Amino acid sequence: QVQLVESGGGLVQAGGSLKLSCIASGRTFSVYAMAWFRQAPGKERELVGAITRSGLTTDYIDSVKGRFTIARDNAKNTVYLQMNSLKPEDTAVYYCAARPAASSLLYTQSRDYTYWGQGTQVTVSS
Description:
The protein is mainly beta and 126 residues long. Helices cover 0% and strands 48% of the residues. The model has no long low-confidence stretch (mean pLDDT 96).
């Protein structure tokens, strides 16, 4: 069982930056593939970025490539999402997700993930 707690959301102007953090309980964080998803009102949940358990491979949706960076610190049981050049369309609740994984596998579908955080609101004003 893994518990995930996100932090770092808030209100920011367009063009600004935020850094989200997700800390996981337990001592086996390094066996989990991790991801950030987001869900805006009236829209389906979508992947923002995913990272393998080793941290060596990442993937992003096209709309955030070059602006967002996912990273992890296995010693701190934490995954991060650095968000730069934020746009109003980035406004959503952002969720951290985890699943046990083989070292080289990357998962990009919400159905692939077992554990979810409670979400943190990100609002970008124009």
